[in-house]
Amino acid sequence: MSTDTHATDQQTVAVWGDKVQLRVNVAGSGDPIVYFHPAAGFHWDPFLIELSSGHTVYAPEVPGTSVGDPHAIHAVDDLDDLVLLYEEMIRKLDLGRAPVAIGQSFGGMLALELAARYPGIFSRVVVLDSLGLWRDDMPVASYMEAGPMELPGLLFADPQGPAAAAMFTPPPDPEQAIAMQAGLVWGMGCTGKFVWPIPDKGLRKRLHRVEAPTLIVWGEQDRLVPVGYAQEFADLIAGSRVEIIPDAGHIPQMEQTERTLAVVREFLDAG
């Protein structure tokens, strides 16, 4: 669950027949970006903070992952429901123009589902090491079954490096450390509802419908979703472009922040 306080504002958007109060973190100014967070939940990382210097970033939290509202997940049955819920949220935010979508891992899958089902909803799409496809010769790691000692090796090229330490080092206060671990487990469970079992949910047959220019960013040493999936997505999304980030694993914007920012900004500026 998110415990971040960086956001300059938080909005609550009532969706799904007012059954879900969707929390949206907002920061920055400029053209809108909608950011879709990964499986573990939302976090204002340096990548997003930098993007918010030139854009208004809207970052919704998947139902159930918001602090104080864990049971919201029960109102959303499956991935189809979640996609409809997010499309409703984007309309209700009334952003004035089609936003850019940026999604990490689980969030990348969600961004592409929206872009495929609602062509025109986004002006551009950026996905970072996205879930959503499956090939038997390139299995996606079963990250929801991985223990806490295994996760750094799945997510980072350097499991002992500063990026991994920033994510997995518990706070010194024991109660905060327990809350951090519980939030991670609950967040993975909430998002896991929409991806388990991991093989794709039919996204492959919908990706030809994506009309927005799309940038596919991948960490070269990703041990969770192999780098070969970058080209797999590119082959299915007309006119898309791939950028491979060396010395990075599943979260390139944490391990190689400046390099990832550079390729994303160049892509956004081209529009």
Cα end-to-end separation:
33 Å
CATH C-level name: Alpha Beta
Number of strands: 8
How does the overall form come out from the CA principal axes? globular
In the CATH hierarchy, the architecture is: 3-Layer(aba) Sandwich
Low-confidence stretches: none
SSE string, helix = H, strand = E?
Answer: EEEHEHEHEHHHEHEHH
What do you see in this structure?
By secondary structure, the protein is of the alpha/beta class. It has a single domain (9-269), classed as Rossmann fold (3-Layer(aba) Sandwich). The protein has nine helices and eight strands. It has helices spanning 46-51, 79-93, 106-117, 151-155, 162-168, 174-192, 228-236, 252-255, 257-269, and strands spanning 9-15, 20-28, 31-36, 55-60, 100-104, 124-128, 214-219, 241-245. It has an eight-stranded mixed beta sheet with strand order 1-2-4-3-5-6-7-8, with helices on both faces. The longest helix is centred in the C-terminal third of the chain and has 19 residues, at 174-192. The radius of gyration is 17 Å and the shape is globular.
Short key terms for the protein model shown above:
8 strands, eight-stranded mixed sheet, globular
Short description:
With 271 residues, this protein is of the alpha/beta class. It is built from nine helices and eight strands.
SSE topology sketch:
Layout (H helix, E strand, L loop, with lengths): L8 E7 L4 E9 L2 E6 L9 H6 L3 E6 L18 H15 L6 E5 L1 H12 L6 E5 L22 H5 L6 H7 L5 H19 L21 E6 L8 H9 L4 E5 L6 H4 L1 H13 L2
Parallel strand pairs: 3-4, 3-5, 5-6, 6-7, 7-8
Antiparallel strand pairs: 1-2, 2-4
